[in-house]
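can u do me a favor
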């Protein structure tokens, strides 16, 4: 089940949306009057700058765009969670070393440190507390006062944003802050989103406890608006709070939240659901409406249920209209917190990565402001259904809201985050009619980090009001400038134009957002209408004939102008993109891909076609020699009286042998590379996936590749494959598959008489990920689960061996176990499936043999019962995720091409770990997870590995962006999708012409003055 779409499409032209929002706002708002109100607030704040240790001051001194600011942020993010002294010292030294904290004497680090230590006496009277401060660590760090001071400084920075480590502490702080000011609070329990159900239940309990605390102080019969309340994150309460798992979310998450709602209703307090990522908005509305219906039924008098809404979303106004209609439908008054939005950078990246049609958020800061004001107006106009809560620290926005609210006369409140905007609110709250609620995070230091970094980024951004307020060089006029203007162009290139907007720039392939019904439905429809085409086996005896026709076609195709060949490939790319639904359906049916994997694969195939078209045009232009690089490029050098030209030519007929794990992308990539450079192709797809290959070939033929220039020869590797490799005259072989078969091909080619035939082989690997104790376990687990288990572990790049520092290993392993349990293994045609079956019985049996062996030899960490899986899914060849702990890296001898992860603990020198990984002999992908930048770089240099991914997952290389391929047992190179790939498909020819042969050096003489 997927949720119904309640709102408009998020991917709409920004200018159209903003033009409408401007219409909504302009008539009802006098901006200049609002700016006049805000100016004295700003002046007052500037006249009383915050103390040195306040976050605004720190960011002013160390902007996040500087090395120092970045170091501060990195340390703030990581230092408190590092459990072992050795790593803490390495991290601190690394970050402080790259920043210039200590070059300016007393000013910078010294000041930071001494302030920190002085402050710590005040703030931490009990001295050391919490795991990061354990005597062992502090004792050891004590030798290094700088490190100790930094630790303190980071803690103090954290305290700027966290009201208390416990509710008791937080409420005591709140009471102190309330003195003399009309403040209420909304408490938030800190933490990362839940990766496991265990985590989700832990968060649930902490919310329950918090509500109990708040309830004990709340006025049960008075005005709810004057009671403190709570804010909750749905992602903390369910490990699969995702659109694809909406049924589970409705079944499991809704009852959890309902329990909290009931407690809040009985206590007469406000409960707000925080706003999270764009692709969860529709799902959150499904959850919200289910709860609203229950509230209406059981607690119709409760006026405290509500949600946060992000104005930076292009559909924010529609969201408000929808929520107002819900309030009316269920006869409830809902509390609606309007925010601008905290995930802007992540939303932009997601849209770019997925090649989405547009951005779901505005790309100009002032457009977000306009949207905020339009939304504010809509909230103020719906007092029958909504109690507006305006959350912002922007003085101009606040003044505009006050002006609009005064006109309507409806009740409302303002909100700010703890640790932010205090100065401005001190001024604003001088108006006794205005009330403010403070969003107050509560939690242990260790849980602070993600929240802290978000706030640092928010405050550090140049466009942020708080940042500009602290920057005296931004004048009053600039600070309070009217946002009521339309910028016709987006501030960022559209995802499709990511690789350049200039004429001739390669278009990025467009992707889909599977949470949007309009994107998803054509795929599901295609599943019903797409059949796997029948492909008959090619008879070995006909291979010589196929070669002959391919060779004669070569004569013409190789002489076709490179730009014409490139045009044909681009046409094929467009056709593939247009056929995305049916190609995806085919990938699901024939290769058992999940929908997400299928969409990514079609995009990769399209990218290959376009990239190699561009690359061929680039490299196949003749160049004059000697080639002059750098500043003097293009200069005429060399011996007078001759010209020297180097050009690339095609080689002839190539044999392309591709695997079943990327039956479209790798197939299309190999073929396109050969065709773009003027070669012709005999293509043998994997035995398991000839249907997809046939469709790809049909598309290429329809685009203009002559039938004889690209021929599909379906059959077994041992027969058709072997015969193709043995065929005399073949000019080259490109192969992706196992190391073992690559070796067989290499030997067969070596045994052949005649020319020496090039082989490009891309093979597998025992891909490892090294994790040190500065890494964030949640981030590690996300990367591990994705890299090891998604695509059923059937990617060459997939993670096989996790090497995790022993100081954090228990926690990481426990989280992997919990997260693996949440994965859905089953029918890939279901949108909720994470892990489909492996490709065939042979693969299944082989993987099971390894699993049986590991059961006997190692410690079992993740291993669902085989019979239970088969019985519940009745899907052939399904292997759910498995994980085992083994003793040493050297114990991992073979690549297991399935969802099977082996885990080893390490201690000591990470370089030694890399040496052991190198010793395995493979060299395809490597993951490194550490916050110690210099360590990451040193390890990457030491690794004999083709593709290294630092602090992210290790799959999904993007064509032209992350050229892909390994070394050693993992392949010959050059890298697919990289700038050196096409050269291997070409021969080189140097032509030297003696220009003086006709009697003398006319050019030399003519050049003399
Ligand atoms: C009480 C409270 C609760 C909050 N709860 C949530 C929540 O549940 N979910 C959530 O997401 N956020 C939440 N926030 C954070 C909020 O979304 C803002 O990030 C924060 O308040 C800064 O906005 P501002 O109005 O104070 O500052 P301003 O500096 O005026 O505005 C900053 C906003 O502009 C956006 N922006 C920056 N550059 C651009 C650009 N080039 N194009 C378009 N937009 C841009 C930023 O992303 C940010 O949203 C909450 C904030 C408060 C005060």
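np, heres the sequence
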């Amino acid at each position: 089940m997927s949720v119904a779409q309640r709102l408009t499409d998020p991917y709409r032209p920004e200018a159209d949306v903003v033009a409408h929002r401007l219409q909504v706002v302009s008539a009802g708002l006098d901006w200049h009057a609002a700016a006049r109100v805000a100016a004295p607030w700003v002046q007052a704040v500037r006249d009383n700058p915050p103390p040195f240790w306040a976050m605004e001051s720190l960011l002013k001194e160390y902007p996040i765009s500087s090395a120092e600011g970045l170091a501060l942020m990195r340390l703030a993010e990581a230092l408190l969670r590092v459990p072992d002294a050795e790593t803490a010292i390495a991290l601190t030294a690394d970050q402080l070393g790259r920043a210039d904290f200590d070059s300016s004497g007393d000013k910078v680090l010294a000041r930071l440190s001494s302030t920190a230590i002085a402050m710590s006496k005040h703030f931490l009277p009990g001295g050391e507390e919490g795991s990061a401060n354990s005597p062992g660590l502090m004792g050891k760090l004590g030798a290094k006062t700088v490190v100790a001071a930094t630790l303190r400084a980071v803690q103090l920075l954290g305290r700027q944003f966290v009201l208390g480590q416990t509710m008791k502490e937080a409420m005591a702080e709140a009471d102190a802050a309330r003195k003399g000011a009309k403040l209420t609070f909304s408490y938030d329990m800190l933490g990362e989103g839940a990766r496991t159900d265990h985590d989700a239940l832990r968060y649930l309990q902490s919310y329950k406890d918090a509500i109990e605390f708040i309830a004990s102080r709340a006025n049960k019969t008075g005005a709810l608006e004057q009671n403190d309340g709570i804010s909750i994150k749905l992602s903390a309460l369910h490990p699969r709070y995702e659109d694809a798992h909406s049924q589970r979310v409705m079944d499991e998450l809704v009852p959890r939240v309902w329990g909290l709602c009931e407690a809040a209703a009985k206590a007469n307090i406000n409960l707000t659901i925080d706003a999270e990522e764009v692709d969860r908005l529709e799902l959150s509305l499904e959850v919200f409406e289910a709860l609203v219906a229950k509230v209406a039924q059981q607690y119709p008098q409760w006026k405290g249920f509500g949600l946060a809404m992000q104005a930076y979303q292009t559909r924010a106004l529609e969201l408000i209209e929808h929520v107002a209609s819900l309030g009316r439908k269920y006869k409830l008054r809902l509390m609606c917190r309007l925010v601008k939005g905290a995930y802007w950078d992540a939303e932009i990246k997601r849209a770019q990565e997925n090649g989405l049609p547009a951005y779901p958020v505005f790309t100009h800061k002032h457009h977000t402001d306009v949207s905020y004001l339009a939304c504010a107006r809509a909230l103020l106009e719906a007092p029958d259904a909504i109690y507006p809560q305006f959350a912002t620290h922007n003085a101009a926005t606040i003044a505009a809201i006050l002006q609009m609210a005064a006109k309507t006369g409806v009740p409302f409140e303002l909100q700010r985050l703890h640790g932010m905007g205090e100065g401005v609110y001190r001024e604003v709250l001088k108006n006794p009619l205005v009330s403010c609620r403070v969003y107050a995070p509560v939690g242990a230091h260790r849980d602070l980090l993600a929240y802290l970094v978000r706030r640092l980024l928010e405050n550090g951004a140049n466009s942020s009001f708080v940042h500009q307020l602290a920057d005296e060089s931004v004048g009053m006029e600039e600070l309070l400038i009217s946002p009521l203007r339309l910028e016709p162009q987006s501030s960022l290139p559209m995802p499709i134009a990511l690789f350049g907007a200039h004429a001739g720039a390669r278009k990025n392939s467009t992707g889909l957002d599977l949470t949007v019904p309009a994107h998803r439905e054509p795929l599901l429809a295609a599943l019903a209408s797409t059949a796997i085409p029948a492909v008959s086996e090619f008879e070995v005896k006909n291979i010589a004939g196929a070669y002959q026709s391919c060779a004669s076609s070569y004569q013409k195709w190789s002489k076709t102008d490179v730009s014409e060949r490139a045009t044909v490939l681009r046409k094929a790319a467009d056709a593939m993109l247009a056929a995305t639904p049916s190609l995806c359906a085919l990938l699901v049916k024939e290769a058992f891909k999940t929908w997400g994997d299928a969409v990514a694969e079609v995009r990769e195939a399209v990218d290959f076609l376009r990239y190699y078209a561009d690359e061929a045009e680039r490299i196949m232009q003749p160049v004059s020699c000697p080639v002059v690089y750098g500043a003097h490029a293009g200069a005429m050098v060399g011996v007078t009286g001759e010209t020297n030209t180097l050009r690339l030519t095609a080689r002839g007929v190539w044999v392309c042998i591709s695997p079943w794990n990327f039956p479209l992308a790798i197939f299309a990539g190999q073929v396109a590379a050969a065709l773009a450079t003027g070669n012709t192709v005999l293509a043998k797809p994997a035995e398991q996936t000839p249907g997809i290959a046939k469709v790809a070939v049909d598309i290429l033929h329809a685009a203009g590749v002559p039938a004889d220039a690209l021929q599909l020869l379906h059959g077994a590797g041992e027969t058709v494959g072997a015969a193709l490799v043995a065929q005399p005259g073949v000019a080259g072989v490109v192969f992706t598959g196992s190391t073992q078969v690559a070796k067989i091909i290499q030997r067969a080619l070596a045994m052949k008489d005649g020319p020496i035939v090039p082989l490009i082989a891309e093979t597998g690997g025992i891909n490892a990920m090294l994790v040190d104790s500065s890494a964030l376990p949640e981030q590690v687990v996300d990367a591990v689960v994705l890299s090891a288990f998604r695509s059923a572990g059937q990617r060459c790049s997939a993670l096989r061996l996790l090497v995790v520092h022993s100081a954090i290993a228990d926690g990481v392993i426990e989280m992997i176990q919990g997260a693996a349990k949440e994965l859905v293994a089953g029918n890939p045609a279901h949108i909720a499936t994470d892990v489909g079956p492996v490709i065939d019985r042979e693969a299944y049996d082989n993987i099971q043999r390894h699993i049986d062996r590991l059961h006997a030899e190692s410690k079992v960490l993740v291993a669902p019962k085989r019979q239970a899986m088969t019985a519940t899914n009745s899907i052939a060849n399904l292997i759910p995720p498995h994980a085992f702990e083994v003793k040493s890296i050297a114990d991992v001898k073979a690549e297991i091409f399935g969802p099977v992860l082996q885990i080893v603990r390490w201690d000591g020198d990470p370089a030694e770990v890399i040496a052991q990984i190198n010793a395995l002999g493979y060299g395809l992908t490597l993951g490194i997870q550490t916050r110690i930048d210099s360590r990451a770089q040193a390890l990457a240099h030491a690794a004999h590995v083709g593709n290294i991914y630092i602090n992210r997952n290790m799959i999904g290389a993007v064509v032209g962006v992350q050229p892909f391929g390994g070394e050693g047992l993992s392949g010959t190179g050059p890298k697919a999708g990289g700038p050196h790939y096409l050269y291997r498909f070409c021969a080189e020819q140097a032509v030297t012409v003696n220009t003086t042969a006709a009697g003398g050096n006319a050019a030399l003489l003519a050049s003399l003055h």
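The chain has 36 helices and 23 strands. hope that helps!!
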